[in-house]
Amino acid sequence: MIRYVESEWFLQTPQTLKQKRAILKRVLTRAGQKFNISIAEIGFQDKWQRALIGFAVVSESHNQAEKMADTVLVFLDSFPEWERGKTTMESL
């Protein structure tokens, strides 16, 4: 079972794209390593206060994949540099 998640994020502190990239690199690297997931910025690359993040979780059951995706979102929400907006989830 594959669970795909897209979420929009609003960053409050960066004043430049370089600062945004530093925040995203740190957060996405930590999430990828901690949960062994594929995660990347997939939209709003030219906006310094917005980011569209996509990640995929692979598991043997639907419930386990859903639970893991929720855990990753809680982890991402724990960073004070950004705030989550619209989030969509899809099972493949």
Cα gyration radius (Å): 13 Å
Average pLDDT taken over every residue = 95
What string gives the helices and strands in order?
EHEEHE
Number of helices: 2
Q: Report the β-strand fraction as a percent range.
A: 35-45%
Beta-strand segment tally: 4
Low-confidence runs = none
Quickly count the domains.
Answer: 1
Would you identify the CATH H-level superfamily?
A: TT1725-like
Indicate the percent of residues in helices: 25-40%
The major sheet is characterized as: 4 strands, antiparallel
Instruction: Write out the strand line-up for the largest beta sheet, numbering strands in chain order.
Output: 2-3-1-4
Spatial gap, N to C terminus: 7 Å
Keywords:
4-stranded antiparallel beta sheet, alpha+beta, Alpha-Beta Plaits, 92 residues, 4 strands, 38% helix, elongated
